[in-house]
Design brief:
single chain; 287 residues; alpha/beta; Rossmann fold; 21% strand; AB_hydrolase_fold; hydrolase activity
């Protein structure tokens, strides 16, 4: 059975919508310590028609730390349902996990998707207690474009401030395979999403590092040919220089897709991205 599931998962990743198919295959493999989706399709930004899902670990009396997971897809693709495997994965590690949608290119351009993320943080802070989460222990996680969104929300304070979110709400970040220092834009997705902004320096997370940044884990694969690992190294160096606690994980021989798919149960052992990010977040947020 296990070999069959892994074969199906491999086919899913080769298809046109691999996250959706991988989430379907993920359900065939037991695990994640009783994690379950406790809310689906909750509207958090009515004007934009945006919804989110909430995943939770096995029920307990104590409030749990919270992860808001922002999915990737080059700002042009992705959905909360497609990344159910990530919601389940982080919930299985002991976090109440929020997976929100955000608006995509070409319907919007920078900074609309960051404004959407800020609204998701606002909803989480105001509502997560009813699902067993601790609103005073919120972290951001994400992969690829989602890691970019998470970095901007953690580093540039004006997005949360404009949404009415108190400063310091994001206590930590665990970001996988993200672009953080990639101007000038040399590929189409970056140009389409960010290139029209008149002040390009304002699109780059690395330019917003201050001592007030939350602790961060930055993970990447050495064989990532979609987002150069230099992005993670550069941001880690800038954070360290500012005195911000940071951990850099470079997984030898691993690709951009490897880190995302290793959040799923069928591929959980292919990189330690989930275990490393969960351990880091528990060290910062507690259990």
């Amino acid at each position: 059975m296990k070999k069959t599931v892994l074969a199906l998962a491999t086919l899913a990743l080769a298809a046109c919508a691999p996250p959706n198919l991988l989430s379907s295959v993920n359900r065939l493999v037991p695990g994640d310590n009783g994690a379950r989706r406790v809310a689906e399709g909750i509207t958090f930004a009515p004007a934009q028609g945006l919804k989110l899902d909430v995943w939770a670990p096995r029920a307990s009396a104590a409030k749990k730390p919270v992860v808001i997971f922002l999915y990737g897809g080059g700002w042009v693709a992705g959905s909360r349902g497609g990344y159910a495997f990530a919601g389940s994965g982080y919930a299985g590690q002991g976090f109440v996990t929020v997976v929100p949608d955000y608006r995509l290119v070409p319907s919007v351009r920078f900074p609309a998707f960051l404004e959407d993320g800020a609204q998701a943080v606002k909803w989480t802070r105001e509502n997560i207690a009813r699902y067993g989460g601790d609103p005073d222990r919120i972290a951001i996680a994400g992969h690829s474009a989602g890691a970019y969104n998470g970095a901007m929300l953690a580093l540039d304070p004006h997005y949360l401030r404009d949404a009415g979110v108190p400063s310091g709400t994001i206590k930590a970040a665990a970001l996988l395979s993200g672009p953080y220092d990639f101007y000038p834009f040399t590929e189409a997705r970056g140009r389409d999403a960010l290139g029209a902004w008149p002040r390009p320096a304002e699109t780059q997370p690395i330019n917003f590092v201050t001592r007030a940044a939350p602790p961060m884990l930055l993970a990447t694969g050495s064989a990532d040919d979609i987002v150069n690992p230099r992005n993670s190294r550069a941001l880690a160096a800038r954070l360290a220089a500012a005195g911000v606690p940071v951990e850099l994980k470079v997984y030898p021989g691993k690709s951009h897709v490897d880190l995302a798919k290793s959040l799923s149960r069928p591929f959980r052992g292919t990189t330690p991205a989930l275990a490393d990010s969960a351990a880091f977040l528990h060290r910062v947020l507690g259990r």
